[in-house]
């Protein structure tokens, strides 16, 4: 049985939407105007300030989904299954953003849009395939409770794929053209670091905003399905 959820006052929504919009606009303008240009890459390196924050969110999503799925397996409350599904939905969207922005950056910087030896790029592709399999199996199972149970175990697969993607650069000696971890030794100039963290905060706000919006939509769809079944 699913628990009842208290509605949040609309004023909170409007305030949060405003924060998301302002932070994203500010982060984009700062990434274009503030940090110095890397001579080896030119203006193409500014994709970095979108690519990295989006990649971080794409990796957090499956881990959150697995956490929610684990709670579902213990409590059998469909609320947690819906939260897990929402987290994987957004992880897939952000992972696609990584796959699109990465080749653009790579082609501009190194002349190679898709390097088969690039461990991080290939691992993100595998993550997308894992998430896609999650949605396919979820769609094919008609029973709501069986769907939630199978999805919970598939969330483990997606979480493992996310962890392997995170470790691709750190654990593989020659990861390809992809640069090393931005938090590794050597680091970045202060202007680049400040811009990157601003982007990280802004895109995490975006993730939270989309998470709340998508979760509410899933809740509405479930309520409609229940009403249709009762009417029929």
From TrEMBL:
One of its GO terms (molecular function) is heme transmembrane transporter activity. The keyword Flavoprotein does not apply. Its main location: membrane. It is a multi-pass membrane protein. Residues 13-171 form the Cytochrome c assembly protein domain. Keywords: Cytochrome c-type biogenesis, Membrane, Transmembrane, Transmembrane helix. It comes from the Bacteria. The chain crosses the membrane at residues 12-34, 54-74, 86-107, 119-141, 153-172, 196-214. The keyword Hydrolase does not apply. InterPro entries: Cyt_c_assembly, Cyt_c_biogenesis_CcmC, Cyt_c_biogenesis_CcsA/CcmC. Belongs to the CcmC/CycZ/HelC family. PANTHER family: CYTOCHROME B_B6 PROTEIN-RELATED, HEME EXPORTER PROTEIN C. This is Heme exporter protein C.
